[in-house]
Amino acid sequence: MAHRETNGSKLFITVLCMVAACGAVPISDLLDRASQRSDTLHSLSTTLTQDLNNHIPPVGWMMMPRPSTCHTSSLQTPNDKEQALQLSESDLLSLARSLLQAWQDPLVVLSNSANSLVHPSQSSISNKIRELQEHSKSLGDGLDILSGKMGPEAQAISSLPYRGSNDIGEDSISKLTNFHFLLSCFRRDSHKIDSFLKVLRCRAAKLQPEMC
């Protein structure tokens, strides 16, 4: 399974590189492929979060950090679709790339932590986290190509360093709780990324705002 995903990711980037170099495929088609990838990323992170929900004990929910403490919360992003529609294409792509890049290190923390997670589906969770890493990298590479075609403003990235510990907990409950929190932050950001790319795809396809 993981091998097929890796090959799919490599093919995704290879196709993007080829079409970007020769200009054979319009930006609208490239955005469509990127949007499909981001949709997969968000769906997978949502499934993972749901897998964990039923195994967080009451004390875990009580000690769960607030969403406002996610390491990407300082980035000013649209609160809804209406606000997103007011932003330029370059700003939307810059925001999506900034959020995606901010998760390179935290995804490594999640991947390493999944190996010692006390959960009946630990093996499945570990495999899905690796899939998240693969999808995230391939999407990031694809958005880099798109930003090169959209100009300097789209290439701007806001730095959002992860300052959390590589050790997410000393006991099974704290590990599970902090793992869930970090994954929930990623799910929230993957939803934003997916939303921004869908707005860009709609604009490139010249669809009316209400259809986005």
Automatic annotation (TrEMBL):
Keyword flag Secreted: yes
PROSITE patterns (alphabetical): PROKAR_LIPOPROTEIN, SOMATOTROPIN_1, SOMATOTROPIN_2
InterPro entries found in the cross-reference section: 4_helix_cytokine-like_core, Somatotropin/Prolactin, Somatotropin_CS
Protein localization: Secreted
A GO CC annotation given for this chain: extracellular space
GO molecular function: hormone activity
GO term, biological process aspect, one: positive regulation of cell population proliferation
Keywords: Disulfide bond, Hormone, Secreted, Signal
Keyword Signal recorded: yes
Protein name listed in UniProt: Prolactin
Organism name: Acanthopagrus schlegelii (Black porgy)
